[in-house]
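Field: sequence (string)
Field: structure_tokens (string)

Example rows 1 and 2, in order.
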Amino acid sequence: MSLTMYDASVTVFMHNLQQLSYLLDKGMVHATAKGIDPATLVNAKLADDMRPLSFQIQSASDASKLAVVRLTGVAAPSFADTETTFEELKARIEKTRDYLKSVPREAFAGSEERQFTMKAGPTEIEFVGQPYLLHFALPNFFFHVTTAYAILRHSGVDIGKRDFLGRA
């Protein structure tokens, strides 16, 4: 059986969003144990010119949803980016996973060759499905998941590689 676009996208997004939720659980436990206001972690950044943890979660959510929309044409819910607590961020992850679960495998038929235009600021970029997924969508998604992990780790949360990877 060959690897499908569904397998290379939805299953990867689903697993890693689940791990992201798990990392947030570890962040909540850390905040409670150390007497840290959870908002401190939600707003934590790696550098002054970077976006906070909340933005990284929102962006991982959006990156996965938009990749599936672009590959399949199946509309996704829009989220307002107003999450300010661990609970709200975890709920966003779950809503994203619910959307991903709702997209049938069959919707990805022919998505390897699907052509579309994506706007990035004032620039329009032409893409074809498979190269888009492999060279833009997945790296973008993992940038935000990894940055969220790094913010939590940098903030003292006891997490490591196994927490990031989870079980296959």
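Row 2 begins here:
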Amino acid sequence: MNILITGASRGIGLATAKKMALKGHNVGLFATNTATLEDAIKDKAFKKALKKKRIVTGQLDVIQPDSWDDAIEKMIDNFGGIDILINNAGVLVSGVLPTTDLEEQLSLIDVNCKGVLIGCHKLAPYLADSKEGKIINVSSASAIYGQPEVAAYSASKFFVRGLTEGLNIEYAKLGIKVIDVMPLWVKSDMTKGIEVKSIGRLGINLTVNDVAKTLYKLSTSSNRKIKGIHYSVGLPAKVFQTLAQVTPDPIIRFVNRKIGG
């Protein structure tokens, strides 16, 4: 499989790239910060893959369409095609909205929404040429119900969720499976130093490797065997997702207010 991963210099993206490389897949690791990316691939998990030329790296600013073109060209030149896009790049800003920096919040919307949209748009023709073409968007359990103190982040993941649902239908005729993963809080650089009430009450119980395992399983599963659209990671997220499907909104709001309000 030829797999393009955004935000691959750290966190979930890097953990997923390591797992893919160790399992013998061709992996394109792309990130905004190429210096961090070059340090990341020095990890022993990439040693064999680098020797066999199964790894490519490159700079990718996900909000710039031309940057996507460069990444796609590098994948095609090195691997001859692309089978899977893992839209992982994301930004988190915490705090009560009026007290946070507006430019940071707008940048969050650009990366988390526009970046995912552009990737889905740009990769479609190439994934359609694959027998197992997939787009896996990294969403969040915050897309189950709007979360206080991370309201813009939560809203951006609702965008990812909605886009995934629409494209799951739209891209089916192209033979492309579009799904997402929805982890709760994950222990990573993104959540380091973040202080929100829901973390204080629920804790951070997932690792980047937990999410990487789910991404690997979905990536290597046959499209015909993937029946769902949203895949929660971790028991709390699975419970919240199940409850949200059968519980009236006032009760869901009450629970979320107790956890994060």
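free_text_note (row 2): The chain has one domain: 2-260.
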